[in-house]
Specification:
With 390 residues, the chain is an alpha+beta fold. It is built from 13 helices and 19 strands. It binds adenosine-5'-diphosphate.
């Protein structure tokens, strides 16, 4: 039996009425959600159909475009062959990025800086898509050179009502994977937030979206460009919870139970600033996974400090999964206070027995660009290169 069958069997045996999928594995698996729906069990999240539409990046982009959401210029749908890819490269102007429509987690994306790189980018994105996701369809987008990653948290009641909970800035990335996230975004004004937030809330309201969702954008020169929608709660959702003072999981359960959302757009006001760092069991400087036994664990605490983790003394980190072992979230009256609190909390944290990314964050906190929030999605990679060169 596969894991979804076992979960459905567990529901039957225990009489569970609903399933909350977390944010991994099965949370964006339309087939699983369909099976849950077919068994008359409530899936705490959107419908299988919404997950299907947004899980295919080409369909997602077309749907969002039709709903009035601004998108990255690119191919109209899938790109069938290399000749078409080359023609599009010329039309859009290099650099361009070739993306697997089924891709995720930063995989299945290849950059072509010029015509000479197109063949390898096209073929590699296709084969990565096939190998990792069983689908070799790819599409092409203009590659934005210095954008920030800004994502809008939305929440729908499934009946045509929806709100937005502002943005998260997730520009500090390594290999297209988020490393640190914050809310509100240091580069986003209240007017921009209200404008793009309203576009997103309106889009999900129009499709009767239910529950939490994130609409991801690249942001460059004051413009937002849609890249994808995640139809689930995200790893970085606690920064939004901190600044809005809401429990998104409670809200998901309310909506799944047929209750109305407990807030309106007017109720949702930002209070202070929150930052999350992803603590991975990885060995620096190469970020190689570092599973093993935790010999000593001590979590930081105090006002404005939240540690989301399942660690304890003696816990053994298995080698089979993602290396994320803890999320440290801090909240302060403003960004300066949040950064100071993060530094203090990282200093209190003890995780012995395995290597972690904690030293990376301590070093980053000393960087002027991090202190001012002045970075784009490439900043961290460049910074890591210069650190290694020292
Ligand atoms: P995934 O589903 O694998 O997370 P996304 O489409 O969300 O893929 O993109 C992940 C990251 O890749 C973005 O945050 C950004 O850093 C980079 N990226 C994606 N599309 C573009 C683009 N058109 N131009 C520049 N960078 C991009």
């Amino acid at each position: 039996m596969c894991s979804s069958d076992l979960i459905l069997a567990a529901c039957e045996i225990t009489g569970a009425q609903a399933i909350h999928p977390g944010y991994g594995f099965l949370s964006e698996n339309a087939q699983f959600v369909q099976a849950v729906e077919d068994h008359g069990i409530t899936f705490i999240g959107p419908t299988a159909e919404h997950i299907r539409v947004m899980g295919d990046k080409i369909t997602a982009k077309e749907t969002m475009k039709a709903l009035g959401v601004p998108c990255v210029p690119g191919s109209k749908g899938g790109v069938p062959d290399l000749a078409t890819a080359q023609r599009l490269g010329e039309e859009l102007g290099y650099p361009v990025i070739v993306k697997a429509t089924a891709g995720g987690g930063g995989r299945g994306m290849k950059l072509a800086r010029n015509a000479g790189e197109m063949e390898s980018a096209f073929l590699t994105a296709r084969s990565e898509g096939k190998a990792a996701f069983g689908n070799d369809e790819v599409y092409i987008e203009k590659y934005l050179t210095t954008p920030r990653h800004i994502e809008i948290q939305v929440f729908g009641d499934g009946k045509g009502g929806a709100v937005h909970l502002g943005e998260r800035d997730c520009s500090l990335q390594r290999r297209h994977q988020k490393v640190l996230e914050e809310a509100p975004g240091p580069a986003i004004s209240a007017e921009e937030r209200a404008r793009i937030g309203a576009i997103c809330a309106d889009a999900v309201a129009k499709i009767n979206y239910a529950g939490a969702g994130t609409i991801e954008f690249l942001y460059e020169n004051g413009e937002f460009y849609f890249i994808e929608m995640n139809t689930r709660l995200q790893v970085e959702h606690p920064v939004t919870e901190a600044v809005f003072g809401v429990d998104l999981v409670r809200e998901q359960i309310r909506v799944a139970a047929g209750l109305p959302m407990s807030f309106t757009q007017e109720d949702l006001q930002i209070n202070g600033h929150a930052i999350e760092v992803r603590i991975n069991a990885e060995r620096l400087p190469n970020f190689s996974p570092c599973p093993g036994r935790i010999t000593q664990y001590h979590a930081p605490g105090g006002l404005g400090v939240r540690m989301d983790s399942a660690l304890y003394d003696g816990y053994v980190i298995p080698p089979y999964y993602d290396s994320l072992i803890a999320k440290l979230i801090v909240h302060g009256r403003d960004r300066t206070e949040a950064l100071a609190r993060l530094d203090r909390a990282l200093g209190e944290l003890i995780v012995d027995g395995v290597d972690t990314t904690v030293p990376l964050f301590r070093a980053l906190l000393g960087e002027p660009a991090v202190q001012t929030g002045d970075y784009n999605i490439h900043w961290l990679e460049h910074w890591l290169e210069t650190q290694m060169a020292v």
